[in-house]
Amino acid sequence: MVAQRVALHRHLLDRINLGVLDTLPRAELVDEVRPLVREYVREKNFPLSARELDDLIFDTTDEMLGLGPLEPLLKDDTVSDVLVNRYNQVFVERAGVLEETDIQFKDEDHLMRIVTKIVSAVGRRVDETTPLVDARLSDGSRVNVAVRPVAVDGPMVSIRKFSKQPYTLERLIEGSSMAEAMKVLLVAAVKGRKSIIISGGTGSGKTTVLNALSSQISNAERLITIEDAAELQLQQVHVCRMETKPPTLDGKHEVRQRELLKNALRMRPDRIIVGEVRGEEAFDMLQAMNTGHEGSMCTVHANTPRDSISRLEQMIGMAGLPMSQMSIRQQVASAVDLIVQLERMHDGSRRLVSITEITGMENEVIQMQEIMAFKKTGVDAANRIQGFFCATGIRPRFLEEIAELGLYVPEEIFNPSVHLR
């Protein structure tokens, strides 16, 4: 069905004046599209009843008013990412594997019209002076756009689709992304207000895990989320969402994550959740974790737990504060309790590969201990990663502290001699 819709879109693009498409009322567009769809159905000899034909006409009209050729892909639940390299080349990711599609835009101007529609819907702009933009679709899907002059071959669009069904820890276990024992430990850590950094590379599932972990926070708490482009799917009753704002044409009135974090501290939050820490706001995030907002969470781009600590140190240095390396590390060691490390593997699978506890400082070195991990054992005949989840035998130091809150973690999940389920 998707292939038929793609072909129908091409048929319509060749016959409709795209310049007036957005100016037509829906009823008039239906009148324009109806004879063209009927002609196409007759040519292809599709056996459609009158009602099915009307449904196809109305669906097609909705797609023309939406994001055009991209609409069938956005409705396809098997697609997780849509990647437009240029107007006549579109890839998708299904089950971690990239594949090229038959979808094309009429020309570069058509693609640019869709791009403008996407970014303007969230109050942003894209042009030669602002060629790089982050935005989101109405369903929460994350969008990144690059246009000329930085995009040499014309507009490029990357869409990370928003899951219609919120991810839970149970779904991650079903998908072999983590073990049940890992869930037990992390749920106790979240409920026990341990501050957590979720670390991983691009596409490793950091936002997915952040959403899943945040679902364990009590409805009695006030949560404030801060993101460049809002995509978190928190299910709690008391959630306040904030999003950065790009500068205006004169380069003024930009609102960065650091300003949002400072403002969030004045809004009586119980926890602050930052979609991704990527700059000087790391200092303010750690300050929040250290000053009564325990249990806050954020994500960082890093390939190992130790790398994530180094990244935090570098980002705090970007704030330009008169702090020594030692004082920066003390801030990190006192603020962060756990690092959850994710990895996207070469077969496209995403796994939680390490849960690491920060235990303090020794001399000038932040001390860490791995609690649970994923161990690779090889690949199968289909080149899929094989391995198992296991405990290292080390008990987290915070277990005694959360036990005072009535939170208990069974001792057997820390047994290193058995594979975690």
From TrEMBL:
<dbReference type="InterPro" id="IPR001482">
    <property type="entry name" value="T2SS/T4SS_dom"/>
</dbReference>
<dbReference type="InterPro" id="IPR027417">
    <property type="entry name" value="P-loop_NTPase"/>
</dbReference>
<comment type="similarity">
    <text>Belongs to the GSP E family.</text>
</comment>
<dbReference type="Pfam" id="PF00437">
    <property type="entry name" value="T2SSE"/>
</dbReference>
<dbReference type="InterPro" id="IPR050921">
    <property type="entry name" value="T4SS_GSP_E_ATPase"/>
</dbReference>
<dbReference type="GO" id="GO:0016887">
    <property type="term" value="F:ATP hydrolysis activity"/>
</dbReference>
<feature type="domain" description="Bacterial type II secretion system protein E">
    <location>
        <begin position="66"/>
        <end position="364"/>
    </location>
</feature>
<protein>
    <submittedName>
        <fullName>CpaF family protein</fullName>
    </submittedName>
</protein>
